[in-house]
Amino acid sequence: MTKPSVPNSEPLCVPCRLAAIAAVVAVLAGGFAYTAGWLTPARLTAPRFINTFEAVAGQPHPGYRRNHAKGLCVAGYFDSNGHGTALSRAAVFAAGRTPVTGRFAVPGGNPSAPDTGSPVRSMALLFELQNGEQWRTGMNSTPVFAVHTPEQFYQQLVAAKPDAATGKPNPATLKAFYDANPETRPFQAWVKAHPPSSSLANAAYYSINAFWFTDSAGDKRAVRWAMVPETPYEPITDAQKTEKNFLAADLDQRLQNGPLRWHLILTAAQPGDPIDDATMQWPDDRQHIDAGTLVIDRSTSQENGTCRDVNFDPTILPTGIRPSNDPLLAARSAAYALSYKRRTLEETLHPAIHQTQKNGGQS
Ligand code: HEM
């Protein structure tokens, strides 16, 4: 039997080895620099987004979310009636109960902003499925978003930066942004026709972005969802318009009288409906499925509550739900992760942060 021949391998010379190591380090450093946006300062990265949220908020607010900073934690459960299984095999849609951690908030990077600063309210939820999976979602109280792409959202953020002299956004700059971006019109029209609700409890909250649902037979449908309140909608009152912090107090008072309920309404797209464009609604006659009831039965301040250290990244989804190609979704995931990283690092370095700022969102 002949021995297999071993190739005559000379060891690499020392300078050659050092050059190879240097080349690997250079490639890795280049990768980091590119990812951080240092090589392409005009590219829209998560740090650029988050730095701009911080700049627009004015002074720093360590330990708080860089957007939707003012909010409160809630908890409860979702009672599924089983009807959602027609669209998705996600375990959360099987009949039964799933515990939920949630957060209500208003947009903006200032945890002490007035509740009237924006017409939008938000609801974020984390469903803890019995099989160990999670479904996280962040919803706004408008069925459409103002813009289609992350780049436009960034430009909108820059246009809304408060003027140093007035402390308010410059109306001419904002108008120029809206004129240059006509896809913002459905959002503007919706907001004009729907005054903000008088309470967090009587608003509907929308996924806005579409997601792919897969049922147990493997069939895929694009779906948007909404949490529709049992509490009838009422518009903000004239008295509330002059108050800075009525939303949290109103919610606490309502919860003292009993739990609050929303219905999870799933809406399935038809072929041709826009899946990747959050500025466009689908026609009203699409199939709607009431998948069950969200029950919220307690609230706590966000400084002490379990929602504080949650990243409600909308791309954390159970089997049976997948993100669509809507470009906002990937940008949201990256921006929320960096906001989360910064705020939790600040909490770790300064553990007393939320004691000293406890009234940041509620006072
Ligand atoms: C490119 C687009 C967007 C960017 C860059 C962005 C950015 C952010 C950031 C940085 C946060 C704070 C996250 C954290 O610290 O946990 C946040 C929160 C939030 N955003 Fe967005 N957002 C975008 C689009 C949207 C859209 C389309 C919706 C509505 C469906 C939305 C709804 C929310 C909600 C509900 C929260 C609060 C979540 C919570 O209570 O923790 N965002 N956003």
From TrEMBL:
Keywords: Heme, Iron, Membrane, Metal-binding, Oxidoreductase, Peroxidase, Transmembrane, Transmembrane helix. It holds the Pfam family Catalase. Gene3D superfamilies: 1.20.1280.120, Catalase core domain. Its EC number is 1.11.1.-. CDD domains: srpA_like (cd08153). The chain crosses the membrane at residues 20-39. Residues 20-362 form the Catalase core domain. The keyword Plastid does not apply. GO terms for molecular function: peroxidase activity. Its cofactor is heme. It is an enzyme of class 1 (oxidoreductase). Has an organic peroxide-dependent peroxidase activity. Belongs to the catalase family. This is Catalase-related peroxidase.
